[in-house]
């Protein structure tokens, strides 16, 4: 039997979020609406990948330059509002990272007080990326459990939440030489729930209990996938570091040319600054869009929206030309 088509409805000012959610996959009819979650997480991921307040200002200025042009149709207006969210989150994260076109604020300045992240602190930024990944996948399983509540599948989703959190706590315990018991117990409870409740097989014969157990054990093959999916969020740290490092490199190269060459050094230095930052900005925009969406469409949808539906197409009168 063909399932009913899926219709995602949001207020007009959030219709851009619906377009973003439907770009890759249509949720199943019984699933939940991912549009708000996808748009919010994409804005966060984009900001973490660009990781520069100066580039965020450039995005904002470009948006303001086309502000009136984007007011022509009702379909364009939500996208300019979403552009404000993207630019605002990029500026905010760049201020927190203390990067302004690759330049760090001087110690003692008011901007230095807002710097709470050090992109060169690899261990801390790796931890931030992993925490974001675990929270994102936990949220996906929580929403999937809510949509499937009343079925065994919902308990399996809760089991994956316990396994993800337990595995993370267990990893922290080994990193800090602490007792692994809390993380191991939480992960063990999660694994048990996955094994017992992943199968939807109806028990009609005693042998069905064995098949349900086998199917539950087979679902544990997703454990390696969960580990790999969490590690996929490391790209947030890697790409953000690459963007910041390139900006610093072009700045240092321009300053070096200005000091080395007399007279023409200023011209060549400025050219290096302009060309270098334009190139880095373009790469950051491309990486932010591609990988920001990838983490939503691949990792998040995999755990939160396993079923694919059919998009709702309303009836419309069409004129037939003879």
From TrEMBL:
Chain ranges passing through the membrane: 42-67, 79-102, 122-143, 155-174, 180-197, 233-255, 267-290
Keywords: Ion transport, Membrane, Transmembrane, Transmembrane helix, Transport
Cellular compartment(s): Membrane
Membrane-topology annotation of the record: Multi-pass membrane protein
Chief place of localization: membrane
Domain of life of the native organism: Bacteria
InterPro entries in the cross-refs: V-ATPase_116kDa_su
Protein family according to the UniProt entry: Belongs to the V-ATPase 116 kDa subunit family.
The protein, known as: V-type ATP synthase subunit I
The species this protein was found in: Ruegeria haliotis
């Amino acid at each position: 039997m063909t399932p009913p088509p899926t219709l995602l409805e949001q207020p007009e000012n959030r219709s851009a979020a619906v377009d973003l959610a439907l770009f890759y996959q249509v949720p199943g009819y019984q699933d939940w609406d991912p549009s708000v979650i996808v748009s919010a997480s994409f804005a966060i991921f984009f900001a973490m990948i660009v990781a520069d307040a100066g580039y965020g200002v450039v995005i904002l200025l470009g948006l303001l330059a086309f502000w009136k042009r984007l007011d022509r149709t009702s379909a364009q207006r939500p996208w300019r509002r979403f552009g404000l969210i993207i630019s605002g989150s990029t500026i905010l994260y760049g201020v927190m990272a203390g990067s302004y076109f690759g330049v760090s604020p001087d110690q003692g300045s008011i901007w230095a007080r807002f710097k709470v992240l050090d992109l060169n602190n690899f261990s801390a930024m790796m931890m931030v990326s992993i925490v974001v990944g675990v929270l994102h996948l936990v949220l996906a399983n929580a929403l999937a459990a809510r949509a499937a509540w009343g079925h065994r599948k919902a308990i399996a989703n809760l089991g994956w939440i316990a396994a993800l959190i337990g595995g993370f706590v267990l990893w922290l315990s080994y990193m800090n030489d602490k007792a692994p018991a809390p993380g191991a117990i939480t992960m063990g409870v999660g694994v048990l729930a996955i094994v017992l409740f992943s199968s939807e097989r109806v028990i009609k014969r005693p042998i069905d209990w064995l098949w349900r157990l086998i199917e539950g054990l087979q679902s544990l093959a997703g454990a390696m996938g969960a580990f790999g999916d969490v590690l996929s969020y490391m790209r947030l740290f890697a790409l953000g570091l690459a963007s910041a490092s390139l900006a610093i490199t072009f700045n240092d190269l321009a300053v070096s040319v200005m000091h080395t060459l007399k007279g023409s050094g200023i011209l060549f230095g400025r050219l290096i600054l302009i060309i270098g930052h334009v190139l880095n900005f373009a790469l950051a925009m491309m990486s932010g869009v591609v990988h920001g969406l990838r983490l939503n469409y691949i990792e998040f949808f995999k755990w939160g929206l396993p079923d694919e539906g059919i998009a709702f197409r309303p009836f419309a009168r069409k004129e037939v030309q003879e």
